[in-house]
C-alpha cells in the first residue's frame, strides 16, 4: 500500500500529476496538500475529486503541526513535493514569500518525514523533490547543456530559493539517510497553466486582441516540455529512481522566445480562423526582466538511458494541442483572470 502526500497538487504540474496517479494506481492513497494560493485551482481537478483513492487537504506546507498530523493520519510513506512559489517575476518583487514557501516549506516537510519515518515499516519510503533547471543558472553558447553535474548558479530569487531547497533535500539524505530523490526540469507547457506564464498569457492576449509583452529583444532561449511528459517522468523516477540521486528532465526542445511567439501567434490565429499574420502586430518589446537568464537547455540523457523515459510529443503537436485546449476552455481562463475560481472552493474549505 502506498500512501503518497503530493504537495501543490492544485497547481499546474501538480494537477496533471495527481490525475495521473489517481487514475493509474487505484490501490494507492493520494493526499493532495495545497494552500490554494492564487496559483492553486481545484477546478483543475474536477474530474478526480470524487475518486475513492483521492483526498484533498487545504493547508500550508510550512505548518509543521498539520504536516506531522497528515503523516500520522494517512501513514504517509511517499512524498512528491511540488508546492512552491513558481513565477520568476513575482520573486523579483516579493522574495520573502519565495524563501518562506520554497525553503522553509521544504524543510518542514523534510523534518516531518524524517521524524515519522523513524518508525520501522515494511513499506518502501521516498521523499521526491520536484525542482527546476533554473538552479543551474544560464547557458551562453549553443550546444552546451545542463547535466546533473552542472554547478548550481541561481540568479533570481526564485531560482535561489529552489537551489536552497535542493541543498536541504541533499543534506537530509546525507546527514539523516532520508531516502530522497530530486529532479530538475525545464519549462513546462500545456493545459491548466496559470496565465502569468508566457504561453497561456499570450494565447489569452491574442484571443482578446491585447498586447504581447516580449521581454528585451526576445532572444532568450527556453527548453520546452509538455506537462504530461513531465508528470510521466515524475511517476517513473518516484518508482524507479535511485535513492540520493538527481535526474534532469527536458525535451531537447530549445526555442528562442521570439521564434516561439511567432509560431504561437500563427497557431492561435489559424485556430481562431483569423487571416495569417493578423495578430503579429500585438507583439510589443518591453523592458527586460532583471537578471533574465539567457538560455536554458537540459541534457536528459541520464533519465533516458537509465530509466528509459522519453518525451511522447513533438513540440508542434503539443503546442497545437495546448492552444486548442485554451480556446476550448475559455470559461476556465475567464474564471482565472476574473478571480472567480478562488471563490467556490476557498469558501467550501474555509467553512470546514
Ligand atoms: P504552480 O505555481 O502552478 O503551482 C504551485 C502550487 O503550490 C499551487 O497549487 C499553490 O497553491 C501551491 N502552494 C504554494 N504555496 C504553498 C504552501 N505554502 N503550502 C501549500 N501549497 C502551496 O507551479 P507549477 O508550475 O505547477 O510548478 C510546480 C513545481 O514544479 C514547483 O516546485 C516548480 O518549482 C517546479 N517546476 C516548474 C516548472 C514549470 O515550467 N512550471 C518547471 C520545472 C520545475
Ligand atoms: O525553466 C523552468 C522554469 O520555467 C520553472 O522553474 C518556472 O517555475 C517557470 O515559471 C518557468 O520560468 P520562466 O521564467 O522561464 O517562464 P515564463 O513563462 O515566466 O517565461 C518564459 C520566457 O518568456 C522567459 O524568457 C521570459 C519571457 N517572457 C515571459 C513573460 C511572462 C516574456 O518575454 N514576456 C512575458 O510576459
Query: What strand line-up does the widest sheet have?
Result: 3-2-1-4-5-6-10
**Pattern of helices and strands:** EHEEHEHHEHEEHEEHEEHEHHHH
CATH fold field value of the domain at 3-190 and 225-253 and 292-314: Rossmann fold
Basic shape: globular
The named CATH superfamily of the domain at 3-190 and 225-253 and 292-314:
NAD(P)-binding Rossmann-like Domain
Ligands present: nicotinamide-adenine-dinucleotide, 2'deoxy-thymidine-5'-diphospho-alpha-D-glucose
Give the overall average pLDDT. 96
Number of strands: 12
Poorly predicted parts: none
CATH C-level class of the domain at 3-190 and 225-253 and 292-314 is: Alpha Beta
Strand content: 15-25%
Describe the sheet with the most strands: 7 strands, parallel
CATH architecture verdict of the domain at 3-190 and 225-253 and 292-314: 3-Layer(aba) Sandwich
Relative helix content: 40-55%
Spatial separation of the terminal alpha carbons: 29 Å
Gyration radius, to the nearest Å? 20 Å
Structural class: alpha/beta
Question: Count of helices?
Answer: 12
